[in-house]
């Protein structure tokens, strides 16, 4: 369903999305990301992350009237849609923005009945805490296992 979602996103936003594969950090080659696409905005190159929740494939994702989300990673906060900071998708997008050196990510959640876009800004506070944790994990645990 992702190709269908990408076409829908391109039509709604009015821009072409460039598909990319694995992107490796040039300064920390142990860190990589595989974004669903990159596209140009007035802010510059922007990241695209697409989710197509199977449980909602033929149903709505959110109810704007009651401000209810039917997926656990989208929440209403002060009347606006946000990605839950505690969800792994938030971390995934932050690391992808770090690796691709982008400032924002369009999080596109798609079903055949509804699609939503949540713009996620790069969170330097989150990255300053979590990138060192990822680096420690890589060198202290992962590399040790690879060397066995």
UniProtKB/TrEMBL annotation:
A Pfam family: YqaJ
InterPro entries for the chain: NF-kappa-B_Signaling_Reg (IPR051703), PDDEXK-like_dom_sf (IPR011604), Restrct_endonuc-II-like (IPR011335), YqaJ_viral_recombinase (IPR019080)
Domain YqaJ viral recombinase: 1-102
Signal peptide: none
Protein origin, superkingdom: Eukaryota
Biological processes, Gene Ontology terms: DNA repair
PANTHER family: EXONUCLEASE, PHAGE-TYPE/RECB, C-TERMINAL DOMAIN-CONTAINING PROTEIN, YQAJ VIRAL RECOMBINASE DOMAIN-CONTAINING PROTEIN
Designated name of the protein: Protein containing YqaJ domain
Organism, scientific name: Rhipicephalus zambeziensis
């Amino acid at each position: 369903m992702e190709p269908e979602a990408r076409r829908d996103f391109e039509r709604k936003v009015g821009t072409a999305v460039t598909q990319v594969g694995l992107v490796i950090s040039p300064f920390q080659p142990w860190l990589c990301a595989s974004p669903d696409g990159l596209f140009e905005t007035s802010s510059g190159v922007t990241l695209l992350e697409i989710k197509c929740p199977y449980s909602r494939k033929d149903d709505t994702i959110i109810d704007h009237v009651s401000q209810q989300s039917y997926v656990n990673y989208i929440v209403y906060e002060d009347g606006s849609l946000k990605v839950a900071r505690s969800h792994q998708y938030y971390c995934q997008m932050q690391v992808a923005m770090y690796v691709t050196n982008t400032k924002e990510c369009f999080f596109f959640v798609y079903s055949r009945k509804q699609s939503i876009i949540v713009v996620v800004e790069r969170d330097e506070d989150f990255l300053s805490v979590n990138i060192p944790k990822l680096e420690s994990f890589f060198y202290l645990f992962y590399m040790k296992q690879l060397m066995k």
